[in-house]
Specification:
The complex is a heterodimer of chains A (458) and B (102). Chain A is an alpha/beta fold. Chain A contains 15 helices and 19 strands. The chains are: A alpha/beta (458), B mainly beta (102).
């Protein structure tokens, strides 16, 4: 079992910045990621065998990626960073032992140990349920983008991008640039909400410019952005054929499409942090202090897992975490790092303003559209009617009871996808589910994996 | 020529290879996942659910949701969005849990 001073879980912007900064200070690092290449979701790499000669056309801030990539290669060649790709971390024991399934088959597991751990596990998208959302052709906005970046493929020919949040702009722009006909971008947000946050927004002009760039790109492709409109139904028998868009005044219209890329913001991956006993905030993100330390000794967290805020904020948080680890491992205090700290403060304020302006619609607004037949839990095929019955007839008052009574959240994804939908329809608070393992694990792996905390048999 | 993702990034993919989907041959570019290969062929669903027998395909696209489960070379419950396609793969629509009538 290889031992390192620091293990970093996740090689997206936060994890890369953390690993590189720690290695710059001489720390021996192991960096693990589930994908075949570093980059995370933001810099998800096109498969090498496709030999993209202008990959930057699918990415924002490509020069930043080139610097990260080159620094990683340099540290890997000196052996200071060991990068383990295709490793899906399913469990971390205190102390720390990091157990990872070898991808993509995931039938075997391997373990590395480390004195310190940084969790840079990122996030995934929230999609609120609506009738027809299980039809093939309906997918997450980020999923459409990930498939485009990695495999250079499109989900269909005529796409609608919808939901709410800053991710919708680059997704629509990317699909249009790659040749899809984007028949419209429907964002349920009210643009007037941005006016309440002008001071936080104007202090990050580069982020505003990024948004303006996407908007100009969409305009060039003739894609109209419509605010205060929601996709309330998807139609089709065995695949998506059309969607119904609704305005706030209740008027509706039908739009033909074969693809609906939808999301209502991001949710953090916090399973490993929770298993290790780290505290979460009311928003369900990992609680960290100024140094990105969690309340568990020698456990740090950075990036989307500690608050949704985008790649630039993740980079700043990763740098701060990396410097903190390097100092603390040597028993010293990290020197003040004003540049990254100022950047973090400014970008967090921007993220809070964006999060507030792009808030997902209140449950009262969207649950009215969800009829009793609408499937909420996609894995276990539990419909809204069963969840409502669990509340009204059987007296469930929390997500756990709803799950035990209906099986909603008990399937493959462990409630990651249906959690917000079930909570909204049931009228319960959305409590993060506690799972013993961060992902499904074959039983054979469980029996073969040795715990570092196990007592030898006498 | 109409723009497509490959032309956008000036890709020069390695020579394609063949796989089958429910017995029909498909051309796949090296490096693409099973899901990307099926999308390229215009296929958007490759599983029917256990209870209602409804079609499913890619939903999250990043390995979180398990909606895109597929049977490849007789092994069911593999995530098509993560699994790279390999020459000669026999990809089949997964019905229910993929284990047939037990």
């Amino acid at each position: 079992m290889a031992h390192y001073e620091l293990a970093v879980v996740g090689a997206g912007p936060a994890g890369l910045a953390a690993a590189l900064t720690a290695a710059d200070a001489g720390v021996r690092v192991v960096l693990l990621d589930g994908a075949p290449e570093a980059g995370g979701q933001f810099y998800r790499q096109t498969a090498r065998q496709l030999h993209a000669r202008r990959p930057q056309r699918l990415y924002h801030a490509w020069p930043t990626w080139e610097r990260l990539r080159d620094r990683l290669a340099a540290h890997c060649s000196t052996g200071l960073i060991t990068f383990l790709a295709d490793r899906h971390v399913w469990h971390v024991e205190p102390g720390f032992a990091v157990h990872a399934l070898l991808g993509p088959q995931q039938q075997t597991s391997e373990t590395v140990t480390a004195d310190a751990l940084i969790l840079a596990t990122g996030g995934y998208e929230r999609v609120l349920p609506f009738p027809g959302w299980t039809l093939p052709g309906v997918l997450t906005a980020g999923g459409a983008q990930a498939m485009l970046k990695a495999g250079l493929v499109l989900p269909g020919r005529r796409a609608i991008v919808a939901g709410t949040g800053p991710l919708l702009l680059p997704v629509a722009a990317g699909l249009a640039a790659a040749g899809a006909h984007v028949a419209g971008l429907y964002d349920s947000a009210d643009p007037r909400a941005f006016a309440k946050h002008t001071s936080a927004l104007v202090r990050s002009p580069e982020k505003l410019l990024e948004g303006a760039g996407y908007a100009a790109h969409l305009a060039r492709h003739g894609v109209r952005v419509r605010f205060r409109q929601t996709i309330v139904r998807a139609h089709g028998s065995d695949r998506l054929e059309a969607v119904t868009a609704a305005r706030t005044d209740g008027t509706e219209h039908l739009i033909e499409c074969d693809t609906l890329a939808v999301s209502q913001g991001m949710l953090p991956h916090t399973e490993i942090a929770q298993t290790l006993g780290a505290a979460l905030t009311d928003l369900g993100t990992v609680t960290v202090d100024d140094e990105q330390c969690t309340d568990v000794p020698r456990l740090w967290a950075a990036g989307e897992a500690t608050g949704i805020g985008g790649a630039a904020l993740s980079l700043a948080e990763g740098e701060i975490a990396g410097r903190s680890v390097a100092a603390r491992l040597r028993g010293t205090l990290p020197a003040p790092y004003l540049k990254a700290q100022r950047k973090r403060r400014r970008l967090r304020a921007f993220a809070e303003a964006i999060e507030s302006a792009y808030a997902p619609p209140p449950a009262s607004a969207w649950t009215a559209q969800v009829d009793d037949e609408t499937v909420l839990c996609r894995c276990e095929e539990v419909a809204a009617g069963a969840v409502r019955e669990a509340v009204s007839e059987l007296g469930a008052t929390d997500l756990r009871s709803v799950k035990l009574l209906t099986r909603a959240g008990m399937g493959w994804c462990q409630g990651r996808i249906c959690g917000p939908g079930v909570a909204g329809v049931a009228g319960c608070p959305q409590t993060p589910a506690r799972t013993p393992f961060a992902r499904p694990v074959p039983l054979g792996v469980l029996t073969e994996t040795n715990s570092i905390n196990e007592r030898p048999e006498s | 020529m109409k723009r497509n993702p490959l032309s956008l990034v000036k890709a020069r993919p390695e020579p394609s290879f063949q796989v089958t989907f429910d017995g029909a041959p498909l051309d796949v570019l090296p490096g693409q996942t099973v899901a990307a290969a099926l999308w390229s062929a215009g296929v958007t669903s490759w599983r029917t659910t256990r209870v209602e027998g409804r079609p499913r395909g890619v939903f999250c696209g990043i390995g979180v949701c398990f909606d895109c489960l597929v049977t490849v070379n007789g092994v069911p419950n593999q995530r098509a969005c993560l699994l790279p396609a390999n020459p000669g793969d026999e990809i089949t629509t997964q019905r229910g849990d993929g284990h047939g009538a037990l």
